Amino acid sequence: MCKLTSCQYDRWKPKDDVMPEECGVFGIFMDDQRYDPAEAAYVGLYALQHRGQESAGIAVTDGKDVKFHKGMGLCSEVFKDNLGKLLGGHIGIGHVRYSTTGDSRAGNAQPLVMSYRGGRLALAHNGNLINSSVLRERLEEEGSIFQTTLDTEVMANLIARQSKEGILKAITAMMRVVKGSYALVIMTQDELIAVRDPLGIRPLALGKLDNNYVVASESCAFDAIDAEFVRDIRPGEIVVVNKNGLKSYQAQSSMETALCVFEYVYFARPDSDIDGISVYRSRENMGTRLAQAFPIEADLVSDVPDSATPAASGYAAESGIPYAKALAKNRYVGRTFIQPSQALRERGVKLKLNAMKRNVHGKRLILIDDSIVRGTTSRKIVEMLRLAGAREVHMLISSPPVVCPCFFGIDTPSHDQLIGSKNSVEEIRRIIGADTLHYLSIDDLLKTVEGAGCNFCVGCFNGCYPIDIRKALKETEQLDLKTIE
Ligand code: AMP
């Protein structure tokens, strides 16, 4: 179902304000007092911190008032002196976010809290709408005012416009208009609502803490608060939790689903299960398949910590070559991926990773990483390992070459900065300086997630996106916003 090929991509470039965001969302409805929602949200967000380190926020309600706090930084920094002010509610939602640098500002932190005719509304969104710029322009033409550059505010605006007949109908109407990815957690004064886009592009799971319902981007957040995983929210489903319990509505159904396969490759935590598949197990399988496809004579198998560790263990088990650490990671350095300049990016790699000289000296090394994006990390690492005395460095990647940007919520640089979009594998090998370089094929990657309750989006690996972007934009331009219901 290739709706937009990579060459078509060049004719459609997103505006700056709609670049994808990586985020984590959390929500809890407490029927008893076992856990304070603000505290539960704080712990849950801490467990989802890998999904976004730029800003964090929590909103809670006690049924009358809505309190919230959000700001730039990690959860521990944002809530250091502020969690106490949020205690005492019965519903809470939270959000962690990483966006591209141009869009980095406190005003864009979530949850987004607003008033509408039904009372107060708070929203936390993971994903990216591809038609939000057009929708925003259309809404502005009709007099709407926006305070942020967030897609989430467009969704909130659409919900508010349709809210005369209740929040459920309003959300359903909004879902008919917006196109893209959304795992959305909404809090009204008396309800917690979770919504997953019809293609299920971003994950969203349902959990239970005694009689209390919890939702989160990943199941690892449930473990952190001792909640149990119940099930994944289905693509196109709206789950409403209130004092009468939980109700599910299948607002939209799509024959085809398109969960982002990059969640398994890199983004999600290894201790999470997504749509029926263990992230750890899928990564280990990626390593096994690499070993079957690319047997190499070597002394050691190693990983670029941490996301490639399960794949390296899979490769070592399948090949019989011992696993050992080739790189030590400084755990106090955050992500090095998006930095304002190439020089800082390169310094960032050195700060984060260092060669284990005694392990690699004189050795023929198989080094496994989950992905190559710009190529900075691999080039620096190969150089480091050679300086540390490695005799051979064979680089194996547990995913295919990233050839196209993501428009659905993974933060990838533009086309021209992706090393895989303009170079062959052999050219990339030469650029990064490895003895050999091999990537997992798309077919093999999809085999590692076989058995999931969904199909997958592999748009970053082949330019085939699950939504025809130009068609969606055209339809949005022609839409009569007054008649949406
Ligand atoms: P690069 O140096 O640009 O080739 O980035 C590749 C490294 O970044 C790999 O080690 C990945 O683990 C990591 N990575 C891949 N995708 C992302 C992303 N969306 N955000 C942050 N890091 C990433």
UniProtKB/TrEMBL annotation:
Residues that hold [4Fe-4S] cluster according to the record: 260, 406, 457, 460
Enzyme Commission no: 2.4.2.14
Annotated Mg(2+) binding sites: 307, 369-370
Catalytic reaction(s) noted: 5-phospho-beta-D-ribosylamine + L-glutamate + diphosphate = 5-phospho-alpha-D-ribose 1-diphosphate + L-glutamine + H2O
Keywords associated with the record: 4Fe-4S, Glutamine amidotransferase, Glycosyltransferase, Iron, Iron-sulfur, Magnesium, Metal-binding, Purine biosynthesis, Transferase
Entry keyword annotation includes Iron: yes
Residue span(s) of domain Glutamine amidotransferase type-2: 23-244
SUPFAM superfamilies hit by this protein: N-terminal nucleophile aminohydrolases (Ntn hydrolases) (SSF56235), PRTase-like (SSF53271)
Biological pathway: Purine metabolism; IMP biosynthesis via de novo pathway; N(1)-(5-phospho-D-ribosyl)glycinamide from 5-phospho-alpha-D-ribose 1-diphosphate: step 1/2
Co-factor(s): Mg(2+); [4Fe-4S] cluster
Family: In the C-terminal section; belongs to the purine/pyrimidine phosphoribosyltransferase family.
Role description: Catalyzes the formation of phosphoribosylamine from phosphoribosylpyrophosphate (PRPP) and glutamine.
HAMAP family from the UniProt entry: PurF (MF_01931)
Protein name: Amidophosphoribosyltransferase
Organism from which the protein derives: Christensenella massiliensis
Gene behind the chain: purF
